[in-house]
Amino acid sequence: MAMTHDTPGSTGESTTEGIEESVREELLALRDSIDNIDAAVVHMLAERFKCTQRVGRLKADHDLPPADPAREARQIARLRELAVSAKLDPAFAEKLLNFVIAEVIRHHETMARS
Ligand SMILES: C=C(O[C@@H]1C=C(C(=O)O)C=C[C@H]1O)C(=O)O
C-alpha cells in the first residue's frame, strides 16, 4: 500500500493566500480539527504498538508464530463492518489495517530472531 504522496506545501507556499476571508477562516478551522484528529491517530497507534510489542515478546518467549492469519481475518471482517456503519470505505479500512498488521508482524519476526 503506497502511503506517501507528493507534498507541494512542503516547499513553503500556502493555499490560504488570496482567498475570500470567510473561506479562509473555514479552511483554517477545518485544518485545526484535522490536526487534532491526526494527533489522536498518532497517540492511538502508539498505544496499539505498545500492546503489540508485548504480544510479540510473549510470542517470542513461548515460541509462537509471529502472525496469526485466523485472528487477522476476524479483525478485518469486524473492521469492515464498523467502517460500513461509520460510512467509511470498507476497502480502505481493510487496507489500513493490513498495513498496520504487516508492520506489527515485521516487529514480531525481528523479536523472534533476537
Ligand atoms: C498482535 C498480534 O500479532 C499479529 C498482529 C496483529 C495485529 O496487529 O492486530 C494480529 C494478528 C497477528 O498476525 C496477535 O497475534 O494478536
Number of helices, counting only DSSP H or I runs of 4 residues or more: 3
What CATH architecture label applies? Up-down Bundle
Distance between the amino and carboxyl termini:
28 Å
CATH C-level class: Mainly Alpha
Beta-sheet strand percentage?
under 5%
SS class: mainly alpha
Q: State the fourth-level CATH superfamily.
A: Chorismate mutase
Bound molecules: the ligand C=C(O[C@@H]1C=C(C(=O)O)C=C[C@H]1O)C(=O)O
Can you tell me the number of structural domains? 1
Alpha carbon gyration radius: 19 Å
Q: What are the segments in which pLDDT stays under 50 over at least 5 consecutive residues?
A: none
Which overall shape is indicated by the principal axes computed on the Cα atoms? elongated
CATH domain fold name:
Chorismate Mutase Domain, subunit A
Task: Write a structural description.
It is built from 3 helices and no strands. By secondary structure, it is mostly helical. The chain has a single domain (20-113), classed as Up-down Bundle (Chorismate Mutase Domain, subunit A), CATH 1.20.59.10. The chain is elongated, with a radius of gyration of 19 Å. The protein starts with 20 loop residues before the first helix and ends with a helix. The structure holds ligand ISJ. The ligand C=C(O[C@@H]1C=C(C(=O)O)C=C[C@H]1O)C(=O)O binds at residues 52, 55, 67-68, 71-72, 75, 101, 104-105, 108.
Task: Give a brief rundown of this model.
By secondary structure, the chain is mostly helical. The protein contains 3 helices and no strands.
